[in-house]
Model the fold of this input.
Amino acid sequence: MTVRVKFFASLKEQMGCDGATVEIGEVATAADVWLAASGGKALPNNVLVAVNMEYCDPNQEVSSGDEVAFFPPVTGG
Amino acid sequence: MTVRVKFFASLKEQMGCDGATVEIGEVATAADVWLAASGGKALPNNVLVAVNMEYCDPNQEVSSGDEVAFFPPVTGG
Amino acid sequence: MRVEVHDTPFHPWKALQQYENDVIAREYPGKYGASAVFVGTMRDFNEGDEITGMTLEHYPGMTEKELANIVGEARQRWQLLEELLLHRVGDLAPNDPIVLVAVWSAHRKDAFEACRYIMEALKSRAPFWKKEQLDEGYRWVEKNTDGY
Amino acid sequence: MRVEVHDTPFHPWKALQQYENDVIAREYPGKYGASAVFVGTMRDFNEGDEITGMTLEHYPGMTEKELANIVGEARQRWQLLEELLLHRVGDLAPNDPIVLVAVWSAHRKDAFEACRYIMEALKSRAPFWKKEQLDEGYRWVEKNTDGY
Done:
């Protein structure tokens, strides 16, 4: 299946891009998506994960067409 | 000695005046001033007392020329 | 610190705009990260009754002094840059602003807590008294409710 | 409820004036006894360093959704009449407003607590990121401090 990946802020700079389209097996978690998108690096502890613009656990399964976002701790306000 | 008495809000209406000049003996508390000004009625529990625009206990002694104010619970804001 | 008792209507947001332009931005440029504001406005109801008007009495001299004491206590307790406190007296109509409390600080915790402290202390200590106009006659408000 | 992300400067007190005229006074005449407001403003210092500018990044779509979630939670928890939440993104200079949170309620306890709740939840959950411009280079702010 195909999912859309997004990176924000310092993570975007570290990854060198703001996102990608990732091809992955039919059963995959958000953490699996990270692995595929980052070329095999482990998901850092403090990275936040959102699927379809809702916060979720890295172990949440994703579906085809999902938007999976990874970003550092938020610092607004 | 002479002290200046002031009443506010509902107390002013109950007393029928906003204040008075009271003649009283040389040693007197704020509660004594109330007694003199109210014609012998006891000071109600919920009446607040201020001497020279500072809150004080009814048992505080007053001095000649003091401004002694009595008023109900405050309801501003 | 600016503390004022007004016997005519004041405009909270305009007063804030002006105070920030005239005092805050000029004296503390780049330093005020946090402003907390409370505005109390006259309602047309209280304790189940319709209120058509209100008269606010105060103790000239003591009121201003007590308000300044309260703001002074907040300054001791929290790190504040500036404070603005306006309170209405006289005859009010529903929707008229009654009170404005504004504090400026570097940090939000100080701003939030000081603003609320000033407001609660004012409610329990500042010598103001509200007389409510009802459809028939009037009544003195007997006691402010606790705000914590 | 009005929630907006602005990529150009907004004016907190003017926005409040306008929202109160257009919405609050029209829809809730006589009902709003209490308004609590917080404004966060860009400082020229942070963690001991001089900050000359700031860029605020966000996650379009999710940011607005999460802000609306937060205001919705506050509505569940406290009795509120209306809420206004504005947040800046893009390039900011010192003294630029970053965030405005305003709530209107019948009573002050609800207004104070909901305003602070929204602000703290926003700080910990709304997807915004600050990049600070220093004299030499820039840095991402790593973490917001706790405000309670």
Observations:
- Residues 2-71 of chain A form a domain with the Ubiquitin-like (UB roll) fold (CATH 3.10.20.30).
- The interface with chain C takes residues 77 of chain A (CB under 8 Å).
- The two ends of chain A are 37 Å apart (CA to CA).
